[in-house]
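Section 5: illustrative case.
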């Protein structure tokens, strides 16, 4: 399956350079990837080409991530490379095109399947797309997994978690596990009683120290990364996502409880890296990935859940096996099979339309 990923210039996620998969590799692509690891596993699993197009639309996400921050657009402009016009992308060479937000004018009658993610679940684009894909697209990929689970017809919105591949992550970032716990930065801001919109602070750092004392484990966290929203930096920190995965790979445990926003994809990263994960029952990805012994109803349960996990080698083995099977089923084989099915469905639909036109 030949795949292209397409984003706008003012998008802080993903690659900051258009690049063909044949010219890069799972580790080399980090040289042009300064942002979060989101979409890295997707790129590798699909062996996808990246294209960057000029800014075509403004969304709630682009305002929040870039346009409401003076100077960010200029920084992105200095460092983003290989921007191309949409009409210069050879869409006909691809079976599947995935964009980040519905930024393209989909060619009418194209045999290629056009799908998109909405970059933030709180964006109005996401809510509108749950009813039906926008502006001629075939699929809306709902990363909050809050709509239909299967593709019945096109066009359609479908639940589609950000993919994870444990074999890929562990082969690229091998590490011997240490008695370390990675704590989601929002767990620490919850303990510091900070508001959802407040950035990382000295109170959060102090909460990290206190939690380490309670859990009796050294803590790793990336709170300072979020002193600027979306971890934005000038100049960009190339390869930061690779450093993040390498640090995760060295941690035996991962904790993501408290005011964890969104679908909870950070726990998916950790599970792919082989961490034993303690999550929160109300978070979509956590419910799919976490063993029942590792799901908390609230943050007060965290010390007890983690202690029980630390004290039992048998439970640790059971939890890791459970997580790996959940990733394989829900975050690797399931999403990839869904895309293949949709591509085939689009091909059949196009053939039937051509046959009717021929008559």
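Designed sequence:
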């Amino acid at each position: 399956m030949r795949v292209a990923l397409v984003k706008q210039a003012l998008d802080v996620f993903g690659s900051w350079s258009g690049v063909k998969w044949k010219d890069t590799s799972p580790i080399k692509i980090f040289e042009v990837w300064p942002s979060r690891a989101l979409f890295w596993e997707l790129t590798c699993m699909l062996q996808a080409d990246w294209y960057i197009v000029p800014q075509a639309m403004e969304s709630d996400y682009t305002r929040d991530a870039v346009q409401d921050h003076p100077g960010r657009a200029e920084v992105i402009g200095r460092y983003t490379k290989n921007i191309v016009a949409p009409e210069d992308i050879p869409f006909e060479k691809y079976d599947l095109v995935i964009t980040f937000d519905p930024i393209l004018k989909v060619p009418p009658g194209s045999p290629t399947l056009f799908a998109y993610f909405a970059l933030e679940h709180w964006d109005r684009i996401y809510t509108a797309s749950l009813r039906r894909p926008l502006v001629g697209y075939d699929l809306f990929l709902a990363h909050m997994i809050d709509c239909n689970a299967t593709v019945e017809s096109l066009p359609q919105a479908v639940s589609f978690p950000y993919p994870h591949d444990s074999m890929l992550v562990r082969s690229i970032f091998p590490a011997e596990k240490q008695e370390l716990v990675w704590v989601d930065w929002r767990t620490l801001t919850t303990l510091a009683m900070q508001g959802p919109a407040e950035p990382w602070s000295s109170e959060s750092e102090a909460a990290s120290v206190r939690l380490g004392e309670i859990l009796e484990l050294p803590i790793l966290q990336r709170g300072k990364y979020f002193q600027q929203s979306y971890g934005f930096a000038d100049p960009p920190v190339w390869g930061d996502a690779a450093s993040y995965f390498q640090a995760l790979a060295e941690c035996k445990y991962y904790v993501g409880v408290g005011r964890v926003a969104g679908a909870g994809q950070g726990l998916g990263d950790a599970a792919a890296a082989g961490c034993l994960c303690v999550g929160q029952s109300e978070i979509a990805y956590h419910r799919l990935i976490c063993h029942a012994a590792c799901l908390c109803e609230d943050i007060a349960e965290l010390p007890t859940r983690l202690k029980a996990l630390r004290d039992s080698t048998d439970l640790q083995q059971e939890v890791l096996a459970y997580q790996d099977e959940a990733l394989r089923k829900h975050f690797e084989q399931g999403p990839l099979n869904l895309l293949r099915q949709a591509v085939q469905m689009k091909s059949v639909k196009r053939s039937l339309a051509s046959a009717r036109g021929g008559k």
